[in-house]
Amino acid sequence: MNIILLSGGSGKRLWPLSNDIRSKQFIKLFKRGESTLGEYESMLQRIFRQIKAAEPDASVTIAASKSQVSAIHNQLGEHVDISVEPCRRDTFAAIALATAYLHNVKGVQAEEAVVVCPVDFYVEEGYFDCVKAMYKEAAQGEKKLVLMGIEPTYPSEKYGYIKPARTDDGGYCYAFTEKPTKEEANKYISAGAFWNSGIFAYKLGYVLEKSRKLLGTSDHALLLSNYSFLKKISFDYAIVEQETSIAMIRYSGAWKDLGTWNTLTEAMEEEIVGEAILSDSCENVHVVNELGIPVLAVGCKNLVISASAEGILVSDKEQSSYIKLYVDSITQPVKFAEKSWGSYRVLDVQEESMVILVTLNPGSKMNYHAHYSRDEVWTAVKGNGTAIVDGLAQMVRIGTVIAMQAGCKHTVIAGEQGLQLIEVQMGKSISVSDKKKYEMPKIYANNQKGFN
Predict the structure, then answer these.
(1) Contact residues for 337 (Cβ-Cβ < 8 A; gap 6+)
(2) Measured in whole angstroms, how far is the alpha carbon of residue 105 from the centre of its chain?
(3) CA distance 21 to 25
(4) Which residue in 201, 311, 353, 395 has the most C-beta neighbors within 10 A?
């Protein structure tokens, strides 16, 4: 079974945990399976694990922006298939590019079916039985497009609706409405309407044909090179609402769109993630704390409290869906990001310096690179590894200090214990764009574990 997972945008409604690099689907808030060790997984990790449990041989491709690639590799490993979007052009372009990737790059035939699912839904395992039914329906080819209709549990104003109606020949046709008022939603539900899940199944050839018609080509290389010029349009508007040959599979299990703090906390298994204390007088309070310092809440009701390197949020749960308006006014460099080799967290920012905690996963390494507008000093505080500076290797253990002037080529390779560094950047122009990559010196190029 072929599955495309759509990895969406930044999700500013989950600030301060989400930012322009760390989208909501990468935030680790959910207990990992039956884990009792306090291990957490992200939305992406959870749905990927659920897919593999339901269909071990499923071929999963993630459609994601370029800025998300490192986080995906960090959480799922280096070998996961990714259809990389050079920029954001809405869901039709993203799905067309991923479909072309399957066809041109992975060699999937145009007559094969694929299911497209967002990554940021919280679902039960029964959901994947419905996904398999969609795949089977699309593979049979009686209808060009297969949708999943969610049986609504309340008249939501946040979702689109699928309204089925009988045709003269006894079949069904479908009409679509985007985010109606609560009163309209009540009428739709009474008439038997379903929530539109944003999940689609089709044969590859169907979307390849639509891509040629609407975007001018279905060739992956051409779509990729011209991506910033492609029409910006949603898959629902470009395809779903125009199509008459549609089948719908019903799903009646648990399904939550985790786009706001209010809906996210409903899916959390614990009131507290991180270090926090809630008094006995607190009611319906959730705390997510990544700062490593205690948070104390006394007598609070219906609140979400979240603290990260990006900032601190204290919000009424019902009002939390409106924070984007205020978050848009906050301008600052990204202070936390996951990379393919680990993660970094900004600890302090001054006019001509920045202090960062760098965490490398066991056996991982940075690119061999140089900065030309800043000096750097690394101090190892945990684990061990090997630093390579201007082609020379040096053992790194707790207490090791390495100073590097601007223009110095360098990298570090974590040992089996992993490695943490305090990195101090110093210069009048400190920027993430001040980085030039180089080939690793040949003597070290094939050594992934360092020399410790």
Answers:
(1) 19, 21, 22, 70, 71, 343, 344
(2) 23
(3) 11
(4) 201
Closest CA to 259 of 170, 321, 325: 321
What's the gap between Cα 276 and its chain centre?
26
Amino acid at 274: G
CA neighbor of 131 nearest in space, from 44, 193, 47? 47
Q: How far is CA 422 from CA 120, 357, 382, in A?
A: 33, 5, 10
Longest pairwise C-alpha distance within the chain: 79
Q: How many angstroms separate the CA atoms of 250 and 366, rounded?
A: 46
Q: Judge contact between 184 and 152, C-beta under 8 A.
A: no
Structure-token match 């790194």, residue found: 396
Walk along the chain (452 residues) and give the pLDDT tens digit of each residue: 999 999 976 667 899 998 777 888 898 888 876 654 558 899 999 999 999 999 999 999 999 998 899 999 999 998 999 999 999 889 999 999 999 999 999 999 999 999 999 988 888 878 999 999 999 999 999 999 999 999 988 888 778 899 888 777 767 788 888 887 888 888 888 888 899 888 999 999 999 999 999 999 999 999 999 999 998 999 999 999 899 899 999 998 888 888 789 988 988 889 999 999 999 999 999 999 999 899 999 999 999 999 998 999 999 999 998 998 899 898 888 889 899 999 999 999 999 999 999 999 999 999 999 999 999 999 999 999 999 999 999 999 999 999 999 999 999 999 999 999 999 999 998 988 899 999 988 766 545 444 44
Residue 389: which of 364, 416, 371 has the closest Cα? 371
Residue 240's nearest CA partner among 198, 204, 209, 205 is 198
Q: Does the CA dihedral 174-180-184-187 come out positive or negative? A: positive
Is residue 327 within a helix (H) or strand (E), and if so which, with residue range?
helix 324-327
Kind and range of the H or E run holding 340: none
Cis amide leading into 86 (omega within 30): no
Q: What is the pTM of this model?
A: 0.83
Tokens standing for 44? 């992406």
Amino acid residing at 101: Y
